[in-house]
Amino acid sequence: MSYVDEVYQMVVEKNPAQPEFHQAVKEVLESLRVVIEANEEAYKKDALLERLVTPERQLLFRVPWVDDKGQVQVNNAFRVQFNSAIGPYKGGLRLHPSVNLGIIKFLGFEQIFKNSLTGLPIGGGKGGSDFDPKGKSDREVMAFCQSFMTELNKYIGADTDVPAGDIGTGAREIGYMYGQYKRIRGVYEGVLTGKGLSYGGSLARTEATGYGLLYLTAEMLKCNGHDLSGKTVVISGSGNVAIYAAQKAQQLGAKVVTVSDSTGWVYDPEGIDVALLKEVKEVKRARLTEYAAARKSAQYHEGRGVWSVKCDVALPCATQNELLIDDAKALVANGCIAVAEGANMPTTIEATEYLQANGVLFAPGKAANAGGVATSALEMSQNSERLSWTFEEVDSKLKNIMVNIFHNLDDAAKKYGMEGNYVAGANIAGFLKVADAMTAQGIV
Ligand code: NDP
Ligand code: 2IT
Q: Considering every ligand atom, which ligand is closest to the CA of 240?
C-alpha cells in the first residue's frame, strides 16, 4: 500500500464517526499523491503526513449558561489547534447545532492549507460549539459567549491562537467574547478578528470573504477567456459570505438571481436586492420569507433548489456538502461554466469530479474563500502596529492576495501535470509551504 493510502486508512481507523474529517483528508491526500510519491521515503521517515493529519492539540469543554427562564443549559465546545508550523493558530468559531469534533477537525484541517495559500504567517485552527444562536435573546447569546470565553481564554492569545467568526458567529458574538477575554486576561490585544471598528476591527473584514470570492472567480474566468460581467450567478446561503458575494458580483456587472437559507430559497429574476437582503438578515435576523414578502419579483420556495436554476456561475456559500452529484449534473446540463466555493467543502468529492470532468472551472473553498482569513491576518497586522488602514487599502491588498492565490494554484497545477485542476493546485501549493516549515523545524 502506498504511504498516502496507509495514512488515509489510519485516519479513518483512528477517527471513527468523523465522515467530514475523512472527506477533507481524502481530498487533500489524493491531490498530494504525486508530490508525496516523488519524495516518499523522506516524508515517511519523518511521519510528515501522520503529523499533518493529527492536530497538535484538541480542546473539548462544557459551556454552562443560564437561559431567560432561569434554566441552566449546557453546550459542548471545541478548539482544535491543528498546525502552527507557519504561524499562530488561526481560524473561526462555528456556532451551530450540528457542530461536533469531526466537523471542527475538517474545518481546522482545511484551514491549514487555506492559511498557507494566503501567503501570510498564520497556522490552522478552528473551534465552535453546538450552541444555536438562532432564536436566542441578546442576553442569552451574551451569557453563552461569556461562559465560552471563560474557558477558551486560557488557550488563546494574540501570538498563540486567534479565533474569528464563522457560521453563527458574527459581530455580536465576537464583541461579547472579546469583552470577556479582556475582562479575564486584563490585556487589550488582537486575540480575535472580525472585531467591531470601534475596538480594533479592520475595515473590509465584514465584506472580505464574499468580495475575495468574487476577485478570485473573476480572475479565474478572465484567465480562461470569460468575463464575469453580464453573467448570471446563483448563490446559496444568505449569511455573511453570501451577502457580500452577491454585492461584489453585482458591482462587477453580474446578475445574482438566488439566495437560500436552511428552510428555503429565493429566485429573483430581476436580481437580488442586496440592501433588502441585508435588512432582513443582518438587522432583523429574519427568514428569507420576509425578503420574498417585501419584493414583488421574488419567488420563495421551500427546501433546496438553488442549483436547478439556469446560470453561468454557481457560488455555494452556505455549508458543507450542500452541492451533491445531482446538483452538479443539473448545473452542467444548464450550461454552468464555473463553480467557486464560498463555503468550506460545500461540494462533495463526487460532485467536484463530475464538474471537473465536464469542463466546469472549479475553485475550491480553501482558495476561493481565503479572503476572509487573509483580511483577518491584515487585522492582526493593524492591531500589532496599533493603526487602522483605510477601506481602500485593505480592499486592494485583499484583491492582490486573491489574484495571487489564483495564479499560485494555476502554476502548481501546471507544474505537476494537472493543468486546470485547481483543487490539486490549491492542495499542493498550500501543502508545500507547510511541509517545508515542518521539516525545517524538526520533529515537533
Ligand atoms: P452565516 O452564519 O453568516 O450564514 C450561514 C448561511 O448558510 C445562512 O444563510 C444559513 O441559513 C445557511 N446554512 C447554515 N447551515 C446550513 C445548513 N446546514 N443547511 C442549509 N443552510 C445552512 O455564516 P457565513 O456566511 O460566515 O459562513 C458560510 C460558509 O462560509 C461556511 O461554510 C463557513 O465556514 C464559510 N466561510 C466563512 C468565512 C467568514 O469569514 N465568515 C470565511 C471562509 C469561509 P440559516 O440562517 O437558515 O441557518
Ligand atoms: O473558514 C474561515 O476561513 C473563516 N471562518 C474565517 C477565519 C478567520 O480567522 O478569519
A: 1
